[in-house]
Design a protein that fits this description.
alpha+beta; 16% strand; 3-stranded antiparallel β-sheet; 14 strands; single chain; 40% helix
C-alpha cells in the first residue's frame, strides 16, 4: 500500500527574487551577474599594493620612517573594506508588485485614463508628488508594475528598480544606490589617496636609490629573489598603473564630491533634472554644502526591504510503500447483524474511530417514575396526554 507523505522544503526568498542578480553565502552577498570587471579591479589593487609592500616599503621604512608602510596598510585595508561593502550589499532594490497589487494598479490606471481609442497612444502613466513646494513626477515601471519612488530608476543591467539610483558601476560589480552610495564614495576617495601615496613614494624610492648608486645602476639593479627581472621594471610598472589610475579615480572622486555637495545623483546630472530649460530647483538640496554632505554621507542608512533570507516553505509529496501484510486485524470492523437482517451498531463510535455528534446518539424516553426528582410532575400539573393514550380511551 502506498502512502503519500508531505515534506516541507525550506526555500529562501532570494532564490525566487526576479532580476539579474547573483547571490552567495545563502543570500548574504548580492551582486550583478557581470562581475568580470570587478575581478579586474581586485587584481589591479591587490597586484599594485603587493609589489609596493614587497619591494619599496622595506627600503623606505629603513631609510625614511617605519610609518610609511603602516599608513599604506591602513589605506589599503580601508579601500578594500569599502569596495567589498559596496559590491556585496543591496543597493536599495525595490520589490516588484505582487499579482494582486499589479492588477489593482492597472485597474486604477484604466479607470483614470479611460478607454483609449484604437490607434492612439495611451497617456503616460505619471503621478505628481510635491516635495518642498516642488512638483516631482513619479513614473510607472512597466517591468516592476509599480510607481517608482522619487529619485528611483530602473537599472537595465540588473533589471531592478533601485531607490535613489546613482548609476551602475561595473568596476564594483553592482548598482550604486541609496544603501551603498556612501561606501562607494569612501571607496573612490580612499583609492585616490592610496594611488597618490604609492605613486609618490615610488618616485621617492627611485630618487633615493639614484642618489646613492646612480640612476643607471638603479636601472640595472635586480632583487635577489627575481634575478631575471629588474627591480626598477617593477617600479616603473607600478608608476604606470598609478599614473593612469590617478587621472580617472581622482577625477571621479572630484565629480562625486561635487554631486554630494549639491545632494544630487549621477542619473539626475546626466538627465539634467534640475538644470533643464525650466530651471527647476533641486528640492532635495538644503542650500548648504555641510548639510548636504551630512545627509548623504552621515544620514541614517535604511534597511533592506528585500528580506533576502526570509523563508518560503513549499510542500513536496513523496510516496512510500508499506511492506507489512494486511491481516484480519487491519480490516475495518463489520457491523453486527440484527434479527431483522439489518446492521446494528455495537458502539457509538464511527468508522474512523471518532465519537459521533451528540445529535446522532439516540436518547431514550423516560417515564415519570424514572425521571429525577426535580424533573417529576408535581400534583398541580396536568400531564399532556399522548396520542396513544387518547386512542386507548376511545
Amino acid at each position: 500500500m502506498s502512502v503519500m507523505v508531505a515534506r516541507k522544503k525550506v526555500v529562501r526568498k532570494w532564490e525566487k527574487l526576479p532580476g539579474r542578480n547573483t547571490f552567495c553565502c545563502d543570500g548574504r552577498i548580492m551582486m550583478a551577474r557581470q562581475k568580470g570587471i570587478f575581478y579586474l579591479t581586485l587584481f589591479l589593487i591587490l597586484g599594485t599594493c603587493a609589489l609596493f609592500f614587497a619591494f619599496e616599503c622595506r627600503y623606505l621604512a629603513v631609510q625614511l620612517s617605519p610609518a610609511i608602510p603602516v599608513f599604506a596598510a591602513v589605506l589599503f585595508l580601508f579601500a578594500m573594506a569599502t569596495l567589498l561593502r559596496t559590491s556585496f550589499s543591496d543597493p536599495g532594490v525595490i520589490p516588484r508588485a505582487l499579482p494582486d497589487e499589479a492588477a489593482f494598479i492597472e485597474m486604477e490606471i484604466e479607470a483614470t485614463n479611460g478607454t483609449v481609442p484604437q490607434g492612439q497612444r495611451p497617456p503616460p502613466r505619471i503621478k505628481n508628488f510635491q516635495i518642498n513646494n516642488q512638483i516631482v513626477k513619479l513614473k510607472y515601471c512597466y517591468t516592476c508594475k509599480i510607481f517608482r519612488p522619487p529619485r528611483a530608476s530602473h537599472c537595465s543591467i540588473c533589471d531592478n528598480c533601485v531607490e535613489r539610483f546613482d548609476h551602475h558601476c561595473p568596476w564594483v560589480g553592482n548598482c550604486v544606490g541609496k544603501r551603498n552610495y556612501r561606501y562607494f564614495y569612501l571607496f573612490i576617495l580612499s583609492l585616490s589617496l592610496l594611488t597618490i601615496y604609492i605613486f609618490t613614494f615610488n618616485i621617492v624610492y627611485v630618487a633615493l636609490k639614484s642618489l646613492k648608486i646612480g640612476f643607471l645602476n638603479t636601472l640595472k639593479e635586480t632583487p635577489g629573489t627575481y634575478p631575471s627581472t629588474s627591480l626598477t621594471v617593477l617600479t616603473v610598472l607600478e608608476v604606470l598603473i598609478c599614473f593612469f589610475t590617478l587621472w580617472s579615480v581622482v577625477g571621479l572622486t572630484g565629480f562625486h564630491t561635487f554631486l554630494v555637495a549639491l545632494n544630487q545623483t549621477t542619473n539626475e546630472d546626466i538627465k539634467g533634472s534640475w538644470t533643464g530649460k525650466n530651471r527647476v530647483q533641486n528640492p532635495y538640496s538644503h542650500g548648504n554644502i555641510v548639510k548636504n554632505c551630512c545627509e548623504v554621507l552621515c544620514g541614517p542608512l535604511p534597511p533592506s526591504v528585500l528580506d533576502r533570507r526570509g523563508i518560503l516553505q513549499q510542500e513536496e509529496s513523496t510516496a512510500q510503500e508499506e511492506s507489512c501484510p494486511r491481516g484480519p486485524s487491519a480490516q475495518e470492523p463489520t457491523a453486527a447483524q440484527g434479527p431483522g437482517g439489518q446492521a446494528e451498531e455495537s458502539s457509538p463510535q464511527q468508522k474512523d474511530g471518532s465519537l459521533p455528534h451528540l445529535s446522532a446518539v439516540p436518547v431514550p424516553s423516560l417515564s415519570n417514575a424514572e425521571m429525577p426528582e426535580e424533573k417529576q410532575l408535581t400534583s398541580g400539573e396536568l400531564p399532556v396526554p399522548s396520542q396513544d393514550a387518547g386512542q386507548a380511551e376511545h
